[in-house]
Design brief:
heterodimer; A: 378 residues; alpha/beta; Aspartate Aminotransferase, domain 2; seven-stranded mixed β-sheet; three-stranded antiparallel β-sheet; 12 strands; globular; B: 358 residues; Rossmann fold; SH3 type barrels; Elongation Factor Tu (Ef-tu), domain 3; 3 domains; six-stranded antiparallel β-barrel; 25% helix
């Protein structure tokens, strides 16, 4: 029996989202075409846009569909940087996803950007005092500030509303991929300039996401072509993906409260059980405000390469944090930024829950974890 | 059995993994990341530690249907293999890093981790055979003489070999390629690796120069008379003839060869071909692949001093730690630091590191 505890990597599609996807795939028509078929597809896409906008607290016109969260983050960061050539500094938190850190580092290497990493405290929450200092020192040269809404490895929620206040008129981008669909996310209320949301983290399909970008703003595109999405993003509109995304959002939002309390109680249970089974385990990022579904655990003296093999062999899927790296796992920059040593970071596993998680999953993990930890000793 | 298959991304380890899986063992594929900065080894290398190789290994594991993981052994590899390689050269010796990698990484660090995790063995795509004989489970040459790799495995002791599986030892390479194709493993046509994997350029001398400097020094003949100048003594190999650029030729123009490298005085000694002849070899740090031969008694056998060298008929004896070899016929050009492997017919008796010759 497979125990899936890696929902932060991707979560099973909701049956309704699969149905919606299949139904829309059966509809011929390019949303940009003027004929009847094109119009029918366009209608489905625009209804989906409305629905997602409503759920995210933004205007429909503020949604720019992309093919992934990574693309949306790249579009925002490079877009703000390129469309404001007099400003060379980019401020990001030290715990951003690689989909933010890598474009920023690329701009540094190839386009002369200056990058400043805003530190976090040892719970993985942005240090607002430090951010304030950075911004006051560089205010006139900052092209964009990017601080994630919640962290994908440890689950801490970042004080974005405060960041927006400090930023003033500097654009603030937030990567809300892990938050959207799992907790309340309101684009307008937060006051950010742009945000990334993604379908497959909330029960929608892979290959569709969105950049929410404040109305009236024009940023430099990454892809040049038909200009389908507000002239900022080109590509034939992925109608099945978008319709399915909207269906998933609709369900996730309808069940937000129930799912939140279910996951949250499983998360507490998981934490308690792990600490009982492995008393010297340490929970990382157990801050005041956290996502209800992520638990990041250091098992001192172990190697996560071994932990994950052993868990896998016991039928349990977990991860080291970010599932993107194909090569050698480097110690997590998130954990290092929180003050863990390389060795501690190397002994850490992320468990993440989702809409299909059950008490049985937790029990299965806790039935083997002590033995797995014993065998994964360095 | 529970088996960890070390998968380099090449055809041999892919077929080895497929065979282990097919035999019904619970197998996982593990690619060893040997550089902490894989980008460094990314292009040009035909070794086994590039990103592309790890992707090849992963695809092969996916095709076979076994789990696949990457284990970071960069630190162990650097300390146990790369450092040793540099140090040996700095001491005027000629090491074989593949031996060290088998001894310290694949069948030490990896095997140890595998055992702690509850696995029974480590399998690789090496060409060698394990057989039950009167001496217990012993290692023998592969059936494919062109591919036989028992030489580079002779650094494994009995305990390490007990945790080792070599599923390809009974097959010739061409058949392994055919089998790979039949199994749909598209690595079937990947070229064999030859270079030292951590020197992707293939320019060993240049790589060593970057690490050991290029302090020039004298090249002298057997009488101590200077006949040329070198740019770093360690870039020479015993028996080397080309590239010496000697300023003073011999009378009659007979060629000269590197006889000796003396790191302390940074001197390279050259001389005639006859002076290269070696009949007596001493090897230190003996390792026994099976039972230790009876001490102080002479035994007949074969000595091999290169990965693809010929087996040389010899008499050998040992005190347990050192192996003393008397070759039937003289051998030309043997450097200290090379691996000395003793065979009894096709059975590997043991190995040692060449420490003295005459």
């Amino acid at each position: 029996m497979a125990i899936y505890l890696d929902h932060a990597a991707t979560t099973p599609m909701l049956p309704a989202a699969i149905d919606a996807y299949a139904r829309q795939m059966a509809q011929t028509g390019n949303a940009s075409s003027l004929h009847a078929q094109g119009r029918a597809v366009r209608k489905a896409v625009e209804e989906s846009r409305e629905l997602i906008a409503k759920a995210a607290g933004c205007d429909a016109s503020e949604i720019i569909f992309t093919a992934s969260g990574t693309e949306a983050n790249n579009l925002a960061i490079k877009g703000f940087f390129w469309s404001n050539p007099s400003k060379k500094t980019i401020v990001v938190s030290a715990i951003e996803h690689h989909a933010v850190i890598d474009p920023v580092e690329w701009l540094k290497e190839h386009e002369g950007a200056k990058v400043i990493y805003a530190p976090v405290d040892n719970l993985g929450v942005l240090d607002l005092t430090a951010l304030e200092k950075i911004i006051s020192e560089h205010r006139d040269d900052i092209a964009v500030i990017a601080i994630m809404h919640s962290n994908n490895e440890v689950g801490t929620i970042q004080p974005i509303a405060d960041v927006v206040k400090i930023a003033g008129d500097i654009p603030v981008h937030t990567d809300a991929v892990q938050s959207f669909g799992k907790m309340v996310f309101d684009f307008k209320a937060l006051g950010v300039t742009s945000a990334t949301i993604s379908a497959h983290k909330l029960g929608g399909p892979l290959g569709v996401a969105a950049l929410i970008l404040k109305r009236g703003l024009d940023i430099t595109p990454l892809l040049h072509g038909g200009g389908q999405e507000r002239d900022i993003r080109s590509s034939t509109v992925n109608a099945p993906g978008i319709v399915s995304f909207a269906t998933a959002v609709d369900q996730a939002l309808a069940n937000l409260r129930d799912n939140y309390s279910k996951m949250s109680s499983l998360q507490f249970q998981l934490r308690e059980d792990i600490l009982r089974e492995v008393p010297d385990a340490r929970i990382n990022g157990w801050a005041q405000e956290i996502l209800p579904n992520i638990l990041n655990v250091t098992f001192p003296g172990t190697k996560n390469e071994s932990l994950l093999v052993l868990l896998d062999m016991a039928g349990i899927s977990a991860s080291q944090g970010s599932a993107c790296s194909a090569g050698v796992q480097r110690p997590s920059h998130v954990l290092l930024a929180m003050g863990l040593s390389e060795k501690e970071a190397d002994s850490t596993v992320r468990f993440s829950l989702g809409h299909t998680s059950t008490q049985e999953d937790i029990d299965a993990l806790c039935g083997v974890i002590a033995d797995v930890v014993k065998r994964a000793i360095k | 059995m529970k088996v960890v298959v070390a998968m380099s991304g090449g055809v041999d380890s892919a077929v080895a993994a497929a065979r282990i899986h097919e035999e019904g063992h619970e197998a996982i594929g593990v690619h060893l990341a040997l550089s902490s900065n894989p980008q460094k080894y990314r292009s040009g290398a035909r070794g086994c530690c590039t990103i592309e190789d790890s992707h090849d290994a992963r695809r092969a594991a996916d095709m076979i249907g076994i789990p696949f993981y990457i284990w970071d052994m960069a630190e162990e590899f650097h300390d146990g293999v790369v450092e040793n390689f540099i140090e040996e050269y700095a001491n005027g010796r000629t090491p074989n890093p593949c031996l060290r990698c088998n001894e310290k990484i694949k069948f030490a660090a990896v095997l140890e981790r595998a055992k702690t995790m509850g696995f029974d063995a480590v399998a690789t795509g090496h060409y060698a055979q394990m057989r039950e004989t009167e001496y217990g489970r012993t290692m023998h040459r592969a059936v494919d003489p062109g591919k036989d790799q028992s030489y580079v495995l002779a650094v494994l002791n009995k305990e390490q070999l007990d945790g080792a599986l070599f599923p390809l030892g009974d097959t010739v390479k061409d058949e392994v390629r055919i089998e790979a194709k039949r199994r749909g493993l598209y690595v079937a046509n990947k070229p064999d690796s030859h270079d030292i994997c951590f020197i992707p350029s293939g320019n060993n001398a240049g790589w060593l120069r970057d690490r050991l400097g290029s302090e020039s020094g004298p090249i002298v003949d057997e009488d101590g008379k200077q006949v040329g100048e070198h740019q770093g003594a360690y870039t020479y190999t015993i028996g080397q003839r080309r590239g010496l650029n000697l300023s003073i030729p011999t009378q009659g123009g007979t060629p000269r060869y590197v006889l000796k490298i003396e790191p302390k005085t940074n001197t390279v000694v050259v001389g005639g071909k006859q002076a290269l002849a070696v009949t007596h070899i001493e090897g230190e740090k003996a390792i026994w692949c099976g039972p230790q031969p009876q001490a102080s008694k002479s035994h007949r056998g074969f000595a091999q001093i290169r990965a693809h060298g010929s087996p040389l008929p010899c008499e050998y004896r040992t005190d347990g730690a050192v192996i003393f070899v008397d070759l039937d016929e003289p051998l030309l050009g043997l450097a200290t630091g090379q691996g000395l492997v003793i065979y009894e017919n096709d059975r590997v008796v043991g190995s040692a590191t060449v420490s003295a010759t005459n």
